[in-house]
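name: query_chain
kind: protein
chains: 1
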Amino acid sequence: MDIFAEEIPGVGDVELSRHAVNRVTADKIPENVFWEVLMRGEVIHEGPDIVWKTGKGIRIVILMRPSPYRGRALVKTAFKLKPSERVR
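structure:
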């Protein structure tokens, strides 16, 4: 799985954490679904520094200015949503 992506809509350039990659594998999230949600998922702001990208039954949590900041956002984690958590 690639760990860098450029020009993600609503986010900019991102790097994936090892934890996020491991969660995608552990939750058996298809890689193409992960990338589709990252590119086209609904953007939900949870405060000034955290963004969620949600869609297709998964949520991706992104830190906009991680510490140390290296010029790109950090995909902190990704996971499958329970039916009651899905955005309608």
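note: The chain has a mean pLDDT of 91.
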